[in-house]
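Quick one:
INPUT:
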């Protein structure tokens, strides 16, 4: 219980002090980053931007196709509607 309280109070600083005392490693070595490098991060951002651009282009194309299909349906319905009105008038 006391170790839990100490860790919550001191956080990671307590762990760093213990590591320095027992292992003798410096804090700078611990900060070594094993994550994504700057170049990789930039390349990933460019890749995501390109994917987003392609996605938007596909969506615009699909939207245009849907609107064309809707317009064809509207044209057919209006022609049929006009023919029905003509028969009703006669």
């Amino acid at each position: 219980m006391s170790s839990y309280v100490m860790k919550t109070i001191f956080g990671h600083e307590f762990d760093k002090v213990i590591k320095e005392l027992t292992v003798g490693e410096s804090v700078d070595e611990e900060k070594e980053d094993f994550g994504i490098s700057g170049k990789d991060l930039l390349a990933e951002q460019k890749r995501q931007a390109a994917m987003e651009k392609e996605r938007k282009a596909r969506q615009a194309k699909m939207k245009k196709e849907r609107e064309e299909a809707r317009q064809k349906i509207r044209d057919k319905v209006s022609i049929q509607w006009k023919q029905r009105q003509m028969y009703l008038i006669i």
